[in-house]
Write a structure and sequence with these properties.
By secondary structure, this protein is of the alpha+beta class. The chain has 2 helices and 10 strands.
Length: about 160
């Protein structure tokens, strides 16, 4: 296993696979000190594979709760690239991204990548909370109404 610039690469049974991810602003995600690709829901995951059998089915799964992220067919040279979005329903915690296909010898090769889904930051959770927006709207309405009512009473 090799990790560089936010990409995890694995070579096994004559095949080579890599996994990386990027945020909506195009920033590459980090890899933790213990080798986990750090992800947030909604980020784009890029899986690359080569050295598999040509024109063979290939799948990308997310586990703890089995979720098929993508499937396709390798090209004539046994290469495959896919970009998938990490589902919004993915719970924070440790997961595995699993790429599986047959190699040129006809054996199924399964490569698992350690991933850790990080919870949204507190600021993002607060800013996207419907309750917070409702409270903000009520406060703005009160700020617009109360000063005029107070002036009317003083007169």
């Amino acid at each position: 296993m090799e990790t560089t610039d936010g990409v995890i690469r694995v070579t096994v049974a004559g095949t080579s696979s890599s996994i990386s991810a990027s945020s909506s602003d195009g920033r590459t995600t980090e890899i933790s000190a213990d080798g986990y690709l750090l992800l947030r829901v909604g980020e784009k995951i890029t899986a690359r594979a080569q050295g598999f059998a040509g024109e063979t089915p290939i799948q990308l799964w997310l586990y703890s709760v089995p979720t098929k992220l993508g499937e396709g067919t390798t090209d004539q040279k046994g290469a495959y690239v896919t970009e998938q979005t990490l589902p919004e329903a993915t719970e924070p915690g440790d997961h595995r991204l699993v790429l599986s296909a047959k190699n040129v010898d006809g054996n199924t090769v399964t490569v698992a990548f350690a991933t850790r889904v990080i919870d949204k930051s507190l600021i993002i959770r607060v800013a996207t909370s419907p309750f917070v927006w409702l409270l903000l709207i009520v406060l703005v309405i009160l700020a617009l109404i109360l000063p005029s009512r107070l002036r009317t009473r003083r007169s």
